[in-house]
């Protein structure tokens, strides 16, 4: 460890004579004014291959030079989807190839990326809770504060624990520095068109932004109430994990201070709350009977309001350019304080309402040093250190402890080399050394309901705590050739590291000592070949991938209780996407993603369940601009389904339910008049398709057999100034 740190310090002190100036492409990277800058293409202003991406290697670089699969959602794309739904799970599920279908819930359980768990971040601050996966990390802030979303696909350790399938980084808005004060106000409403009664919701948001001398700022707030959600037949959807009757608050601020042209301080804070206040309770349906879904009926819900009572995120960053020998420095101190509650139930003995709390405190030191040995060999070295403290527990609101405070300390030095061999061949490689220590105190288990026989098992075991240590060296390498605009191929290998849902293991511990439980870290290897290209008005990209792990992280039910299967896993798939400009006023596009996976048992291989593998996803869209200030966006979302399992004793178990095919359409439109006034309209499930969510089908449960929304309208008015 000390040797690595000394190497890092030595690299950062390279003299100006040693590094000289970089080649033109490296200089292009360094001269990016902001990390969200878009380099405009001569033919098409929104050419994705010229956009800047940060999350792939923790340094601003042109997407065209990244040897891995990346999906970027621009501010415009986010707004198109936001006019249809304010649920980030919906927005991402409809926009990102390889990411699972939306759950239409406050929980994103089963919405994996390429069949594995995804790490969610806000400006690099981890939102996921890998010590106890609550599957609510995608809804960790309001989408109106987003400038863009960067999705890096495939196993990656660049940001640490939990990115087995990749990472999603929410990049928040930056200040408008052209004015002292500017901003916008938006008000809107949404409601069901099938049976509007009690479905009306509303939202209001306010944003201010500007720059005063050396200080720039952006401040915003939003409040939303959702009303009831109904299916295509007008029935109230189940309130459990439901989007019904939510009260959502979001407050955001980012303030920057330019000390001088090379030094800057920036502070960010975001507060998010989403809780359910409803007069409905769930009435179980009959799984497999299309006309008997789980619905909401009038009743008093026990316990406290479900949802996320709070999610605080804050960071303080220092950005320095040309500090030592052209080395740039980015140092960030951050914290997150998060609490989520699920429904009150009889899952635990004597009933109760679980709450998971996570507190993170972290520090990132990121340095970048350019170099040039000749006109054919040049590049940059990105290196630094991540320090993270994560304290996570699950307790019942009556004070009983389900999972004790797990205290994780993570120290991880890393480096990433990007080398240009001439102007067209990009080689990237890197290492990250994970050092993870988790302290678990003594605790006593609570009985968990066995839904097979109705008894409570596993309670009253006094477990001796202890320290768990995990160490792993993660490696990645990639190569991309960019000479031909028609075909720009890449090949890559990357690894990830995660401690998979330690809390679930501790909750059901049968041993009296933590060190005796089946707690092991998971390392995933991702192999990928991909390409991108363009021909006249057509642009396209694709990738084929293969992912392996010697230890699995799938949920299986044994004796009626969830546990983690540690059997080896193999996942494979491919993604294809293309878009074409029919003429100046109309674009069309489509993408297709396929993922499949199996785990290896002693005597056979079995398919991974629906909680890991989503069915094939097909999306297509058209954007029509009849006038310069009027755009119409029509989107299709479809699947051919997935049926890999046979029922056991006439019934499907968790994760094995067959998923039927469906096709649904969404519409959004916006019209701007008087330059700064905009009317937006969105229609979810345009043709009122009657179908079940993907998660409802694979969960194979009467209580979770919930349909998708029927036709729902959103309309808003925004005034900028």
TrEMBL record:
Keyword list, A-Z: Cell outer membrane, Membrane, Signal, TonB box, Transmembrane, Transmembrane beta strand, Transport
Keyword Membrane set for record: yes
Pfam families linked: Plug, TonB_dep_Rec_b-barrel
Domain TonB-dependent receptor-like beta-barrel span(s) in chain numbering: 258-686
GO cellular component: cell outer membrane
Membrane topology category: Multi-pass membrane protein
Family annotation (PROSITE patterns): TONB_DEPENDENT_REC_3 (PS52016)
Domain TonB-dependent receptor plug: start-end pairs: 64-166
Chain segments annotated as coiled-coil in the UniProt record: none
Transmembrane recorded as keyword: yes
One Gene Ontology term of the molecular function aspect: siderophore uptake transmembrane transporter activity
Full protein name: TonB-dependent receptor
Species this protein is from: Flavobacterium hibernum
